[in-house]
Amino acid sequence: MGPEVFVDIFRSALGVIVILVSAIIVPSLLVGLVVAVFQAATSINEQTLSFLPRLLVTLAAIGIGGHWIVQVLMDYTIGIFNQIPQVVS
């Protein structure tokens, strides 16, 4: 049981976090980019025009991908709990 075991666990935790956050943030970033281009093209500087679509897309991403997000977290947690005997001994 060396430090490389804990580094591997930490690396896999960071990988799961990056994947799950990206699934929520990337659609919001793309919609924000489209809205920003639209605002620049039409010279409309309304803050609610940029905030509301991003909010709705973020909520939709959470709603659509929520089951997958919970499943990934459950799989990771079960995997960590199954590794406890190997790490402790």
From TrEMBL:
Signal peptide: none
Keywords from the UniProt entry: Bacterial flagellum, Cell membrane, Cell projection, Cilium, Flagellum, Membrane, Transmembrane, Transmembrane helix
Any GO BP: protein secretion
Source organism, top-level taxon: Bacteria
Pfam families on file: Bac_export_3 (PF01313)
Compartments where located: Cell membrane; Bacterial flagellum basal body
GO cellular component, as recorded: bacterial-type flagellum basal body; plasma membrane
Membrane topology listed for this record: Multi-pass membrane protein
Keyword Ligase included in the entry's annotation: no
UniProt family annotation: Belongs to the FliQ/MopD/SpaQ family.
Protein's job: Role in flagellar biosynthesis.
The protein, known as: Flagellar biosynthetic protein FliQ
